[in-house]
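Continuing the batch. This is chain 6 of the set; chains 1 through 5 are on the previous pages. Same settings as before, nothing changed between runs. Recording input and output for traceability.
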Amino acid sequence: MPKDRADAVILDLLLVEVLRPEVIEAAIAEAIAAAEATRPEVEPKLAAIEHEIGRLDAELANLSAIAAAGRTCRHRGAAGACW
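Output for chain 6:
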């Protein structure tokens, strides 16, 4: 079979068998179910990352304020804040 004809047959099969709304909807539903199944293990990790981002944002703001004021950090508190 010539390559062009084989390509046309494959594309026709894709259009008829794979790219149907019900096939696509089923694939999407399966992907959502798989993502939801991992939610219990991902949620704590996400919360920890968000907490760390908040801490780093606060530290960056503090260091930026120090740099803007033209002073150095001589004492660091328990949360990492300079005073």
